[in-house]
Amino acid sequence: MPEKVIELSHISVFFNQDGQTLKAVNDVSLDVEKGDIYGVVGYSGAGKSTLVRVINLLQRPTAGKVVVNGETLFEKTDQSTAIIEAKKLRPKRREIGMIFQHFNLLDEKTVIQNVEFALKHRKLKEKQITAKAQELLELVGLGDRGQAYPAQLSGGQQQRVAIARALANDPEILISDEATSALDPKNTVQILELLKRLNRELNLTVVLITHEMDAVKRIANKVAVMSEGQIVERGTLLDIFTNAQFPLTKKLVGTESDSQKAMAILKNDHAFDNQADQSILHLTYRGSSISEPVTTKLYEDFSVETSIVYGNVDVLRDTPVGTLFVIMTGAKNGRQQAIQYLKAHDVTVTEVGLEAVKND
Ligand SMILES: Nc1ncnc2c1ncn2[C@@H]1O[C@H](COP(=O)(O)OP(=O)(O)OP(=O)(O)O)[C@@H](O)[C@H]1O
Predict the structure, then answer these.
(1) Of 18, 77, 252, 356, which sits most exposed with the smallest number of CB within 10 A?
(2) Does the structure's ipTM exceed the value 0.90?
(3) What is the pLDDT of residues 27-47, one digit of tens each?
(4) How far is the CA of 255 from the centre of ligand 1 (A)?
(5) Domains 4-244 and 254-359 agree in fold
(6) Which tens digit of pLDDT belongs to each residue from 214-231?
(7) Residue 241 pLDDT > 70, yes or no?
(8) Domain boundaries, the chain
(9) Is any ligand 1 atom within 6 A of the Cβ of residue 275?
């Protein structure tokens, strides 16, 4: 059984704003397992930051239960409220590192002093603190920049220092709240790859809050989509990308734009006669499970012709995932058998109604 490191149950966070109740987080439950890189995505104001601030009780919930590494930090029921004692919460918080969009480094201190600062509370000798800080800088690829000042570093390098500092107390969990939002594309990719490496090498569990689906696509294994204080859809990265149900998810993952492009092509496509012997299919598949021989096979075995209207390939973590919109022409029975064949070969098949083409 995978070990649950974060268990949020029925969390609500309500704020009072000008006499009105703002439901920033509304009855959200979320479990994160050891070694996950759990992407929490949604537009600004969806409640992502508020939800993750609950994990280490930087934000106290209005209702719900917070368990980290098996220990209950907070539980509020109708009858009572239980909160972990302050002296126990402090070390618990150290199990959870955080990085943000703003790096929050101390400008007047050198890079290594910034990292050492996070180790000061430990009963370590000066020398040990310096050695540990140096080790952390090496881990994030900045072993030779310890004597520089933050202003002398690029944004990406400053975020690396912030990551080294967040790891100073050997946390099991790292919360990344929009950590790449202020970075250019190159630095964004480098920071995401660093998080992926730390996840792999240190078995660090990462909660990745972002409004950028590309970030999630690159490193997350699981995704929760938030809208108006609630999780509207969740699943493995592959599920969310190949089988999104909620309109916002479709928009975020690009299914909506793929579908719009395919429909625009179909409207002007003479191969599509809108006849009773034709189906429009939306296929998604992993790796290279669909290739030329498949269309040949469908023709030979089921007497259906498959013509590709639109295709796109995304890379999820390291796996290519393809999207195809095809017109399948042939007898109803043959088309049904061909669809069964595709499904049996790990292809997700969705029939697109003809209305979609007419009304789009
Ligand atoms: N301390 C607070 N007091 C009052 N309202 C708050 C407070 N913190 C957050 N909110 C409100 O709660 C809602 C959710 O905010 P939150 O920051 O969690 O969203 P988000 O999805 O992280 O978006 P962003 O990326 O813009 O921060 C917003 O409407 C915000 O204005």
Answers:
(1) 18
(2) yes
(3) 999 999 999 999 999 999 999
(4) 28
(5) no
(6) 999 999 999 999 999 999
(7) yes
(8) 4-244, 254-359
(9) no
Please name every residue paired with 65 in a beta bridge, in sequence order, or none if there are none.
Answer: 9, 75
Architecture of domain 4-244: 3-Layer(aba) Sandwich (3.40)
270 has pLDDT over 70: no
The answer, yes or no, to whether any atom of ligand 1 lies below 6 A from the CB of 46, is yes
Indicate whether residue 48 lines ligand 1 (CB < 6 A).
yes
For residue 49 and ligand 1, the question of a CB distance below 6 A is answered with: yes
Residue 14 has pLDDT above 50, yes or no: yes
Q: Give nearest CA residue, ligand 1 atom 3.
A: 15
Say if ligand 1 is within 6 A of residue 22 CB: yes
Which tens digit of pLDDT belongs to each residue from 92-130? Answer: 999 999 999 999 999 999 999 999 999 988 888 999 999
Residue 288 corresponds to which amino acid? S
